[in-house]
């Protein structure tokens, strides 16, 4: 856990409390235990989980400082086993966090994690993005939407941007080489009311793993036609 302790210190300027590290330990144990009966992650070795899940999830704090100070309403779309949402909520407890996934078994696991770690202002919601983004209580309600989900940017944009408030941000976690994908997504961003403000690149500490963050600002409301019906974005990207 030393690498995680050092990284939390780096991004917050404070030595993490023992209680915080204990919660990360508990989260890791719950993850690997549930993974024995359900496919949550291919990465289970502790040092690998710390680097490729915990630290990677927290790396957004290096490129989007607002996540450290503000009481943002955050949606983690396609959260899977809780990344990046759970690590972000643990380190930045002021965040109002919604974890969203299309597989109910993952949501049930995350609800157990939320209870075990005693996370306040943190909920796990099951559904399809195309349907949830049309609900009044979710559409354009979030200051920040984040996603580590594996999908092409034009597709991910249609899933995520409708949830973002005008003036808020959609930030996608991508691999280091993102230029071609970014070019193909420019039209989608514009149609959905967003604009790619910048791309921030970094290397995860003590590794050669490159990470790009595509930072998209929501400049105007998303048109009522979007998102399109379930499956359309994948078949016919904007």
Model description:
The structure is a single chain. Strands 3-2-1-4-5-7-6 form a 7-stranded mixed beta sheet, with helices on both faces. The protein is α/β, with parallel strands linked by helices. The chain has a single domain (2-235), classed as Rossmann fold, CATH 3.40.50. It is built from 10 helices and 7 strands. It is globular and about 45 Å long.
What order do the helices and strands follow? HHHHEHEHEHEHEHEEH
The low-pLDDT segments are none
Shape: globular
* Helix content percent band: 25-40%
The rounded distance between the terminal residues' Cα atoms is 42 Å
Q: What is the CATH architecture term?
A: 3-Layer(aba) Sandwich
| CATH evolutionary superfamily | Vaccinia Virus protein VP39
Strand order of the largest sheet: 3-2-1-4-5-7-6
By DSSP, the count of extended strands is: 7
Specify the CATH class: Alpha Beta
What is the C-alpha radius of gyration, as a whole number of Å?
17 Å
Largest sheet: 7 strands, mixed
Q: What fold name goes in the CATH topology slot?
A: Rossmann fold
Structural class: alpha/beta
Number of alpha- plus pi-helical segments: 10
Key words describing this protein structure:
7 strands; Rossmann fold; 238 residues; 7-stranded mixed beta sheet; alpha/beta
Summarize the entry for a quick read.
With 238 residues, the chain is α/β, with parallel strands linked by helices. Helices cover 40% and strands 22% of the residues.
Describe the SSE topology:
Blueprint: H1 2-12, H2 18-35, H3 46-58, H4 66-69, E1 73-77, H5 85-91, E2 96-101, H6 104-116, E3 122-126, H7 129-132, E4 142-147, H8 153-160, E5 164-175, H9 179-191, E6 194-203, E7 210-218, H10 232-235
Parallel strand pairs: 1-2, 1-4, 2-3, 4-5
Antiparallel strand pairs: 5-7, 6-7
């Amino acid at each position: 856990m030393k690498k995680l302790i050092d990284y939390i210190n780096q991004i917050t300027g404070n030595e993490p409390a023992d209680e915080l590290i204990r919660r990360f330990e508990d989260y890791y144990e719950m993850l690997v235990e549930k993974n024995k009966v359900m496919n949550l992650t291919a990465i289970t070795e502790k040092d690998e989980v710390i680097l490729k899940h915990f630290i990677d999830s927290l790396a957004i704090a290096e490129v989007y400082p607002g996540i450290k100070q503000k009481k943002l309403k955050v949606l983690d779309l396609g959260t899977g086993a809780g990344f990046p949402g759970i690590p972000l909520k643990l380190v930045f407890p002021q965040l109002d966090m919604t974890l969203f996934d299309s597989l109910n078994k993952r949501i049930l696991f995350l609800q157990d994690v939320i209870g075990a770690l005693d996370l306040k202002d943190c909920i796990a919601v099951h559904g399809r993005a195309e349907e949830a983004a049309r609900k009044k209580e979710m559409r354009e309600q979030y200051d920040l939407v984040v996603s580590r989900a594996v999908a092409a940017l034009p597709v991910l944009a249609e899933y995520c941007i409708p949830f973002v408030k005008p003036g808020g941000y959609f930030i996608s976690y991508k691999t280091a080489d993102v230029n071609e994908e970014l070019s193909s997504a420019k039209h989608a961003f514009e149609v959905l009311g967003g604009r790619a403000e910048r791309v921030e690149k970094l290397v995860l500490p003590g590794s050669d793993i490159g990470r790009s963050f595509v930072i998209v600002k929501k400049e105007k409301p998303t048109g009522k036609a979007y998102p399109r019906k379930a499956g359309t974005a994948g078949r016919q990207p904007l």
